[in-house]
Amino acid sequence: MIVRDFNELKNTNRAVSNEQWTSVRMLLADDNMGFSFHITTLKAGSDHTFHYKHHFESVYCISGNGQITELDNGTTHEIKPGVMYALNEHDHHRLVAGDEDLVMACCFNPPVTGKEVHREDGSYAPADELEQA
Amino acid sequence: MIVRDFNELKNTNRAVSNEQWTSVRMLLADDNMGFSFHITTLKAGSDHTFHYKHHFESVYCISGNGQITELDNGTTHEIKPGVMYALNEHDHHRLVAGDEDLVMACCFNPPVTGKEVHREDGSYAPADELEQA
């Protein structure tokens, strides 16, 4: 059994961040669960465009508020505690945090290795490209 | 993109419950994400023994308090907001909710179909046994 505490990991190298967001990697590929699990905090007012071309991701809002827009058709959905979105079609999307930080529980399949960086197109590379790099 | 709201689903047949717990199925196998995602509430004071012999599960505590015990070796861990446990060895375990309801974000691989029931040994049947049933 693996037991980990977000409040401890957030001060370690399992927390990846930039000015707009922090992602704490609770489970990564090397945990061999078949998915990765992250607690991601997006700062109030921050604005993100992502396009996970090689991953499925589900995102559940624990706290905060914001909006997600499907960039292929312009549809916007309100994000509030209890709302989940799932990118089952590798959806190109824009996520904007409202006047509170968004705290989100995120699952990725295939699991994130922890070595990915967001590329210019908002995607993560597939794991086999990372291995070749 | 799939968008679902826990606060709507909890009043539908996506919520499965007994006297001790309620599990709201945010994502199931037929969503084709490769995992399922559930928000599970375990009533204060309730006591559960589970053994997912055919699934990996991670469980993240959103709110509440309790304890998990590894039944193979007796080790007990405190559960509080921010703590996650992952059953990476199909661990036989006992979960006891404390003086508040435990609200947990749960990921299963392989994804739960929604047709499983807990068997006497605390497991869910593998999906291929369900298909044969």
UniProtKB/TrEMBL annotation, chains A, B:
InterPro entries in UniProt: Ectoine_synth, RmlC-like_jellyroll, RmlC_Cupin_sf
Entry annotated with the keyword Lyase: yes
Keyword list, A-Z: Lyase
Recorded catalytic activity of this chain's protein: (2S)-4-acetamido-2-aminobutanoate = L-ectoine + H2O
A GO molecular function held by the record: ectoine synthase activity
Pathway involvement of the protein, from the record: Amine and polyamine biosynthesis; ectoine biosynthesis; L-ectoine from L-aspartate 4-semialdehyde: step 3/3
Gene3D superfamilies, per database record: Jelly Rolls
Keyword Disulfide bond: no
Assigned EC number: 4.2.1.108
Source organism, top-level taxon: Bacteria
Enzyme class, spelled out: lyase
Annotated function: Catalyzes the circularization of gamma-N-acetyl-alpha,gamma-diaminobutyric acid (ADABA) to ectoine (1,4,5,6-tetrahydro-2-methyl-4-pyrimidine carboxylic acid), which is an excellent osmoprotectant.
Family matches, as NCBIfam families: PRK13290.1
Family indicated by similarity: Belongs to the ectoine synthase family.
Protein name: L-ectoine synthase
Species classification: Bacteria, Pseudomonadati, Pseudomonadota, Alphaproteobacteria, Rhodobacterales
